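User: Sequence for GntR family transcriptional regulator below. Tokens please.
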Amino acid sequence: MKPPKVTLKQQIVQDMVSGFWQPGDRLTLGELAGRYQASQTPVREALRELYGEGFLEMGAGKTFQLRPLSLAFIENIFDIRSCLEVMLVKTAANKCRAADILHLKTLNHALAEAVSQGMFEIAIEKNREFHDVINGIAANAEATRILKMHWIFIASLWKQVGYGAARYTGVVSDHHAIIQAFERQDADAAASLMGAHVVKAKFELIEKVKNQALPTGDGNEQFA
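Assistant: Structure tokens for GntR family transcriptional regulator:
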């Protein structure tokens, strides 16, 4: 069994992804202890871990605040993601085995099925798993840790703005092309495809955020 503070941290993160906790929300010990039915000591430890991982900022009176979002922040994390994922996919293309390629094909098929049935929350999970497999093949723990942290923010935003069949049909197609590059062991092609894949997601998400005028949590009513 995992230590209580790890389980509690995971619960808080899941609530961030689901949109229960919004960017800019202040998180108090009492409120969290009540929601997660825990004492304040493990809550405090979980918050400190999330702060150390970049999810939270210090608020007034030693409180914690869920990190506010802005267009600049979204652009920054996608730019970082692009650099890291291009590096990782290039490494993975040179290291992948037949079993890895089969795993990627299975995940992409499951993603396509979820999209065809309008099950977009499952689709985003299959998309994440697809990228996790590639990152796992590359075996760079530090790069993967950063990407996992950023995925929480990105998943939360997609949850708020909506997914849409058109976006994920394109994702399936991009994944298929990356798999083909893996089959050829063409690392340069895989890197080029992944770079374009991330940039496309960046601009689609930013456009949706602008259109829906989501709050930033910093006192402004919309991204600007």
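Residues 81 and 146 are 8 Å apart (CA to CA).
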